[in-house]
Design a protein that fits this description.
The chain folds into six domains: 189 residues, 2-Layer Sandwich (Heat Shock Protein 90); 131 residues, Ribosomal Protein S5, domain 2, CATH 3.30.230; 79 residues; 141 residues, Heat shock protein 90, C-terminal domain (Four Helix Bundle (Hemerythrin (Met), subunit A)); 142 residues, Rossmann fold (3-Layer(aba) Sandwich), CATH 3.40.50.450; 61 residues. 44% of the residues lie in helices and 17% in strands. Helix 9 crosses helix 10. It starts with 14 loop residues before the first helix and ends with a helix. It comes from Streptosporangium roseum (strain ATCC 12428 / DSM 43021 / JCM 3005 / KCTC 9067 / NCIMB 10171 / NRRL 2505 / NI 9100). GO terms for molecular function: ATP binding; ATP hydrolysis activity; ATP-dependent protein folding chaperone; unfolded protein binding. InterPro entries: HATPase_C_sf, Hsp90_fam, Hsp90_N, Ribosomal_Su5_D2-typ_SF.
Length: 872
């Protein structure tokens, strides 16, 4: 039961506590008093200018660190006693608000420049001050007044001698806030909150420290480029840690007016939880930094600054009222500006648009995927990587011919893993298709969404999970049969290598240089994605066992190895059976396809590739060792050959200018007559050779060394091989081992019984009767074998004749002359004259004197020799 009240009384308040409570809890930042006092000064100047347009406003701040005092001074309208009592001394009463409403009713422009609304700005001074003194003189007032308050219900009003119109606020800052009494800090605070206040603000006589106007406060520009450059420079100074990729000027009219600038930053943004942010100004006064709600939720890559006279600040002036219709209107208009700007860049500044796509791919496409309204605006403009550079879907749809089997829809060919780019770019280039690399985040989902939104005109085809006959052509039945065994052998080889989930298929595709391609089934692709999820640290342990079980089952799902029937290596491989080299080549083609499509490089594949790599390393090392051994052998033989060549060259240099035949016979008197017959044939005309046996001259003391020296000096060889005498065959073999083209002649009598070695049958074979035959008979047999019609008929002898530069003057030749010569005379002549040319160029008298021969003999010998030489 309520009944009549027992007593009625008023509630009481602790006024001092209320002031301190409001001051300390309404304003979170102690610096905010600077903003509030400058705002009051600004509004005071605006009100004075509404009465007198010739007033130039100014605001001054003095900092007195030693006294712990700050002074704010303006030349605004000032206050009289009535104003002080009605507005300054009453919390919540605002002269600015009252006069503003009056001016607005009168249609005065100044009403829209006033900032203050709530009449509580002076409270901010008590956040830091223990005492506040306001000295003020109103225009047309008789004198000045001073209002004193120490944060209590008691305030004092004094007459004052302030000289000019305006107001001066003196703060006696408490010791706990003494750090605020600092010129640099005050200057930074002015710039932060009041940079756009359009009256100059000086600090300690320096300034103005505020910009007063930003580029968007300027109405006239010489050109759009000048305007954009001014915006860019300002944003670069204000947000000095970032460089704008593009600038979006704000000039919005309507329900909520706004100016300012947005920009797309060059800073990479880490994830989709990042938000776009703007700094909010209301009527040029800073209100809030890094606001996350004024931009549309998809504009995560946008930064900027918005100044609106129509947004409604909160009482603390550190935020704006978000439920008011002006806030929603402005957010919608900002979204429209961003989309229109991106569309303009896509069409008119492609390089900038490409740069933005590359820098903010994640957010542009992520937001298009999440927000349908943004998708509808930008889907055709977003850039995708293709085998023909970056291009928008709008441009891409013009690149490929429509597919009749799809109702002539425009095809979108893509592959889903970036690692497969090299493989599918080659396939697409060879086929003449333009293909999209949809391996980046959101790309595949965006293409699927795009095809769903445009189902009537677009057909989506994923190349790395399809066996499209347009790119992987089928073989004829006959060709299939010819490659059937290769398919079976390849699967067998891969299973032996541990690859159990592979199906090998023969196809024909371009380019022919590409031997193999791996194609996924839809199930295997999903399991690849599941594998990537399982390894993420956030994956819940409860689901891990289920996922791992699914992945284990995936090992049995097939992937397809498409072998290229036009590839030369594949065609050669088809001719091999299950030989080791065929197994290695098969696995090499598989691993090349895996490496060419890096997304397939699973743990199992990596292990198998590793094993093959080690096998190949072992084979390479074995071949290296074999090659090293061969190199050593070749080098040793090269050195030996070089030594032989050098030795041979030295021997060749020692060969006489006339032809020397080295004769090889058994050590037996049985062949003495044969030796004479050989000399009679070759040492006389027409050959003029020298025939020498090892016993004729000793060049070196050792038997073998002496024989080797004889062989080296000889131009040709003649050997008696009837009995295949071991010494003869040894020396003959040594002559053949030299490897040069010096001719070798073999003598063999008719009674010889042993078969002649096949390599000697190819040489000049000279048969004769018997070693016991007479010299003339043996000589005639030799001539019959080597001559025809008195001329040499053997190529080897012909070469010797052609190669001689001198003709040997042998004892056999001298004794055949019609001049009787003693052995001593023959020896005397041969000591002086080795060759026919030596003899014929000698002075005959001198030769006679030197040899002791009578001059007539010398003359006769020379004439006979000349006649023989001329007739040869």
């Amino acid at each position: 039961m309520v009944g009549r009240p027992r007593e009625t009384f008023k509630m009481e308040t602790n006024f001092e506590g209320l002031i301190q409570l409001l001051a300390r809890h309404l304003y979170a930042d102690p610096d905010v008093f600077v903003r509030e006092l400058i705002q009051n000064a600004h509004d005071s100047i605006i009100l004075r200018q509404s009465e007198s347009e010739d007033v130039s406003g100014r605001i001054e701040i003095e900092v007195h660190p030693k006294d712990g005092m700050l002074i704010f001074r303006d030349n605004g309208i000032g206050m009289d006693e009535d104003d002080i009592k009605k507005f300054l001394s009453v919390i919540g009463s605002t002269g600015t608000g009252s006069l503003g409403r009056k001016l607005q009713a009168e249609g005065r422009e100044a009403a829209f420049e006033l900032i203050g609304q709530f009449g509580i700005g002076m409270l901010s001074a008590f956040v830091v001050a223990t005492k506040v003194v306001v000295r003020t003189r109103k225009s047309a007032a008789a004198g000045a007044l001073a209002w004193h308050n120490s944060g209590s219900t008691t305030c004092e009003l004094y007459d004052d001698d302030k000289p000019g119109v305006g107001t001066e606020v003196i703060l006696h800052v408490g010791p706990e806030h003494g750090y605020l009494v600092d010129s640099r800090r005050i200057t930074e605070t002015v710039i932060r909150y009041c940079d756009f206040i359009r009256f100059p603000i000086n600090v300690d006589g320096k300034g103005p420290v505020n910009a007063m106007d930003a580029p968007w406060h300027r109405d006239v520009w010489h050109s759009p480029s000048e305007k954009l450059e001014a915006y860019r420079q300002y944003l670069g100074r204000r947000y000095h840690n970032e460089t704008p990729l593009t600038v979006i000027p704000i000039d919005i009219e309507g329900e909520c007016r706004a100016r300012g600038a947005l920009y797309i930053s060059d800073r990479n943004l880490p994830d989709l939880d990042t938000t776009g942010v703007v700094d909010i100004f209301v009527r040029r006064m800073f209100v809030r930094a890094d606001d996350v709600d004024l931009l549309p939720p998809w504009a995560k890559f946008v930064r900027g600054l918005v100044d609106s006279p129509d947004l409604l600040p909160t009482a603390a002036r550190d935020n704006v009222q978000r439920t008011h219709s002006t806030f929603a209107f402005l957010r919608e208009q900002l979204g429209r500006l961003i989309v229109e700007h991106l569309a303009d860049l896509a069409r008119n500044e492609r390089n900038t648009f490409v740069h933005i796509n590359l820098w903010h791919h994640y957010h542009l496409k992520g937001m298009a995927l999440v927000h349908d309204d943004f998708f509808a605006q930008v889907a055709d403009l977003l850039l995708f990587e293709t085998n023909r550079n970056l291009m928008s879907l709008e441009e891409y749809l013009t690149k490929n011919a429509p597919r009749p089997e799809t109702g002539n829809k425009a095809p979108i060919y893509y592959f889903a893993f970036a690692g497969a780019a090299a493989q599918f770019y080659r396939l697409a280039d060879a086929t003449g298709w333009c293909v999209i690399n949809a391996g980046a985040e959101f790309d595949e989902a965006l293409l699927e969404k795009y095809s769903m939104y445009n189902a009537g005109r677009v057909w989506l085809q994923r190349l790395d999970a399809t066996d499209d006959p347009a790119i992987f052509q089928r073989l004829s039945r006959e060709e299939e049969e010819s490659f059937r065994q290769l398919e079976a052998n390849a699967e067998w080889a891969l299973r032996r290598a541990g690859v159990t989930n592979i199906d090998v298929r023969m196809r024909r595709f371009a380019p022919p240089e590409l031997p193999a391609v791996i194609i996924l089934t839809p199930e295997s692709e999903a399991e690849l994605k599941l594998r990537d999820i399982v390894i993420q640290p956030w994956f819940r342990s409860q689901l891990e066992d289920v996922a791992n079980e699914a992945l284990e089952r995936s090992r049995t799902r097939p992937v397809y190895l498409q072998l290229n029937a036009t590839n030369p290596l594949v065609r050669e491989l088809a001719l091999l059976n299950r030989e080791p080299v065929a197994q290695e080549l098969t696995y090499a083609m598989y691993t090349s396809a895996v490496l060419y499509s890096r997304n397939l490089l699973t743990h199992d594949n990596a292990e198998a590739i590793h094993r093959q790599f080690l096998r190949l390393c072992g084979r390479v090392m074995g071949q290296h060792n074999d090659l090293a051994g061969l190199r050593d052998t070749v080098e040793r033989e090269r050195r030996e050959a070089l030594a032989l060549r050098e030795s041979h060259a030295a021997l060749v240099a020692r060969r006489p200018p006339h032809v020397l035949l080295f004769m090889i016979t058994p050590f037996s008197e049985e062949y003495a007559v044969l030796e004479q017959a050989v000399r009679r044939v070759f040492e006389r005309e027409p050959y003029f050779f020298e025939v020498m046996l090892a016993r004729d001259h000793t060049y070196k003391p050792g038997l073998l060394d002496n024989v080797r020296e004889h062989m080296g000096r000889a131009h040709g060889f003649i050997a008696e091989i009837s009995d295949l005498n071991p010494n003869v065959m040894l020396e003959l073999g040594a002559t053949m081992f030299t490897g040069d083209d010096r001719p070798i002649f073999s003598l063999r009598h008719q009674n010889a019984r042993q078969e002649v070695p096949s390599d000697l049958k190819e040489k000049l074979y000279i048969p004769y009767g018997s070693p016991s035959d007479g010299v003339e008979e043996l000589a005639a047999a030799i001539r019959r074998a080597v001559e025809r019609d008195g001329q040499s008929s053997h190529e080897g002898i012909g070469r010797l004749v052609a190669a001689r530069s001198r003709r040997h003057l042998s004892a056999t030749l001298l004794r055949s002359l019609d001049v009787r010569l003693t052995d001593a005379e023959v020896s005397a002549l041969r000591r002086i004259c080795t060759t026919v040319e030596d003899l014929l160029t000698q002075d005959q008298a001198a030769l006679a004197e030197r040899t002791g021969l009578r001059p007539y003999k010398v003359n006769a010998i020379c004439e006979m020799i000349r006649e023989l030489a001329d007739g040869a």
